[in-house]
UniProtKB/TrEMBL annotation:
Gene3D superfamilies xrefs: 3.30.70.270, 3.40.1170.60, 5' to 3' exonuclease, C-terminal subdomain, DNA polymerase, Y-family, little finger domain
Phylogenetic placement of the source organism: Bacteria, Pseudomonadati, Pseudomonadota, Alphaproteobacteria, Sphingomonadales
Native organism: Sphingomonas sediminicola
Site (Substrate discrimination): Y20
Subunit and interaction comment: Monomer.
Known catalytic reactions: DNA(n) + a 2'-deoxyribonucleoside 5'-triphosphate = DNA(n+1) + diphosphate
Entry cofactors: Mg(2+)
Protein name: DNA polymerase IV
Principal subcellular localization: cytoplasm
């Protein structure tokens, strides 16, 4: 648990329910109540799936052909990111009425530090309830929320009663709550690590709590310390309004495998344009360009080049084209290209934190 001599934070993790798919169902009444996948195309992947599609096993990042096989009635719709961004801005404006400490994780989820009771609602639970009510009334969408004293537990809690749910975990309940969960639910423990833990007989938070710090560090290095801390509900990370991006990128899956150098170069120009739009919106700059290539047999490779100074739009694309040109002649066709900027420069400093409200 957090140290007793430190003020207890009040953190809300808000997670929109099947955000992209829900926006599509909101805007097209004929989609409501039906299994919907955003994304698609016979070579594409599912970007998001509605709750009606999930019982069939349809999930994000699944190849479209697999999703359609699992759910023959699945309806694919093209993503409308301009609409999703606008709705996300609406939601962010609601958050801003309750706190200045907002850390977006994506268009559809964010951490809020509501320790300072700006609206005089009395508790973090009441704040979360009002935020969820306003999101429903002002956007026609539902959101789930988790309320707790730290980021890790708040994020676990937001998933507890989905969709359209609220879960509050007080500091006193946290360790027992974590102990009952499978480690595969823990944010930061992916499928590969979960399998490694389960091979060691660690299937739940309680199992993880029984292992010593020394053992976990021996087996998992620096990550072992993180696992030891989170299974005990120890997470001192602050909500940072200006959370730095690790990278900004864009990618595209092609309808047909491509090998022609000119066609690939033209596609990369388009992808670079999409990526640069995101870079400008993120207000970042960087020194490393990374090209991502997925071949027809699903092998993925990356190639990077770093520079002594931050890059402009032309230098960014030129570096990507040079990395692509160096791959020719290609051993096999390419089904996906991506281009990203890394080693980013943080633009704004995080704001300081305020304290004083009950969970």
């Amino acid at each position: 648990m957090a140290d007793s001599d430190k003020p207890v934070r009040k953190i809300i993790h808000v997670d929109m329910d099947a955000f992209y798919a829900s926006v599509e169902q909101r805007d097209d009444p004929e989609l409501r109540g039906k299994p919907v996948a955003v994304g698609g195309g016979h070579r594409g992947v599912v970007t998001a799936a509605s709750y009606e599609a999930r019982p069939f096993g349809v999930r994000s990042a699944m190849p479209s052909v697999t999703a359609k096989r699992k759910c023959p009635e699945l309806i694919f719709v093209k993503p409308r990111f301009d609409v999703y961004r606008e709705v996300s801005r609406q939601i962010r404006a609601i958050f801003a009425d309750y706190t200045d400490l907002i850390e977006p994780l994506s268009l559809d989820e964010a951490y809020l530090d509501v320790t300072a009771d700006q609206r005089g609602l009395g508790t973090a639970r009441a704040t979360a309830e009002e935020i969820r009510r306003r999101i429903r009334e002002e956007t026609g969408l539902t959101a789930s929320a988790g309320v707790s004293y730290c980021k890790f537990v708040a994020k676990l809690a937001s998933d507890q009663n989905k969709p359209d749910g609220l879960c509050v975990i007080t500091p006193e309940r946290a360790q027992a709550y974590i102990a009952a969960l499978p480690v595969s639910r823990f944010h930061g423990i992916g499928p590969v690590t979960a399998c490694k833990l389960e091979a060691l007989g660690i299937q739940t938070g309680a199992d993880l709590q029984e292992r010593s710090l020394a053992e976990l560090e021996t087996r998992f290095g620096s990550s072992g310390r993180w696992y030891w801390r989170i299974c005990r509900g120890i997470d001192e990370r602050e909500v940072k309004p200006d959370r730095p991006y690790k990278s900004v990128s864009a990618e595209r899956t092609f309808d047909d495998d491509l090998r022609d150098p000119e066609r690939l170069a033209a596609e990369l120009t388009r992808i670079a344009g999409y990526a640069w739009d995101r870079i400008e919106r993120a207000a970042v700059s960087g020194r490393t360009v990374t090209l991502k290539v997925k071949f027809a047999d699903f092998e993925i490779i990356t190639r990077s080049k770093s520079f002594g100074t931050t890059l402009g739009r032309c230098e960014f694309e030129s570096a990507g084209q040079a990395l692509l040109a160096a791959l020719h002649p290609l051993p096999k066709g390419i089904r996906l290209l991506g281009l990203g900027l890394h080693n980013l420069i943080e633009v704004n400093a995080a704001q300081s934190r305020q304290l004083g409200l009950a969970i």
